[in-house]
Amino acid sequence: MKRLIQLWITSFVTLGFTSLNAEQPALAQSPAIDVPRVMRVAGRKLSAFNLSHKDQLAYPTEAKGSVWTTVDSKNWVSGFYPGCLWYLYAYSKENSLPDAEKWRQMAEKWTIGLQNEQYHTSQHDIGFIIFDSYGNGFLLTGNTDYLPIINQSAASLSKRFVPTTGLIRSWGNIDDKTIQTTVIDNMMNLELLVWSSLHGGKAAQGMPSNLLGIAKSHADRVIEHFFREDGSVYHVVDLDPSSGKVIKKRTHQGKSDESTWSRGQAWAIYGFSSMYQYTQEPRYLKASERAADYYLSHLPPDFVPPSDFGSSLTGLEFKDSSAAAVAASALLRLSNQTEDPSRKKQYFAAAEKTLQSLTQAPYFLESDDRAGILNYAARNYCEDPESKLTNTSLIFGDYYLLEALLAYAKATESHLAPGS
Ligand code: GLY
Known about the structure:
Layout: H1 2-14, H2 35-52, E1 59-63, E2 69-71, H3 80-94, H4 100-112, H5 126-141, H6 146-158, E3 161-162, E4 167-168, E5 180-183, H7 190-197, H8 211-226, E6 236-239, E7 246-250, H9 262-279, H10 282-297, H11 321-337, H12 341-358, E8 393-394, H13 395-412
The structure holds glycine (GLY).
The site of glycine has 5 residues, from loops.
């Protein structure tokens, strides 16, 4: 038991989650975030999905109503459902709740369903797929069967590294000689490489660099090519893989090439904070802070951004609660990493305010009429609220909400066991 608790604590530190320490900014007396309530609702909804998909490993992706649309294991979102189950296991174990074992078994079942993805080389998202499932599973249970799968996944991702550009090719054919496309989201998949490099993983044969070298090269080139003067980031950069030169900076999911897609900005805050956690290289902390400062100075009063900061659409149906959840988790970690006392306070307070919004109506979906936990998420910037791209629940929004709440509970030790 002691070892399990130790593992849980270690996992938070290793994953860069916020832990209580002397530097934690002062908190309001009552944080007013009811973590047990959210975990109870999450447990009900995630368990219902498992029951309705007993014999079919189809992974939830988005839900406008009471039923999740599903995708197969190859889809970039497939790791989030098992990841949510691992977080429920973590929460139950931490609070000595009787259902911990149930969550572990469920999480294992859905994690194992992803095992073939370790060989996946057709896009960069193997990091999301494998680290949120097998990675969380290993960190929480120490199951050594998971380690070779994580390391094989890192080797598979390393094959997409293009030495001339110094970046991982996020999308497109791995051998395309005419164009390489890299997206800001790719920052999130570096953790797989760095973590694996610390646990015996190796880059694929023939690669000119090791896993850590690939991750650092990628992060350094992102600082060079993706950031604008004001700290906002481009979503997509196309490069010439022969010369390494940038062809075009643009968007795919935002409003326009020069506007700022809010989830992309949140991926940048999170991704650089994660790189700093592992490497302690100050340039990554600075990059995360720059991205965070832009993000925070453009937020509306409820701390939940529109799907694009350049949007003039103000309704809830054009917001992206998933961006807010990603940012909340990243800001909690960043508040522990930054040396600047005023930033420390600001980041923590912003994460707390974001979580206050996300855990109440209209963002929080308590009733079972809706399959998801968070409402008003947007896959892309979109002007039609009826489109499946916006005004919906997204499984990754729910995943980062749970992650942020676990970190918040840990940081504040304010949580009470459900039912108490
Ligand atoms: N990584 C894809 C997205 O954020 O929509």
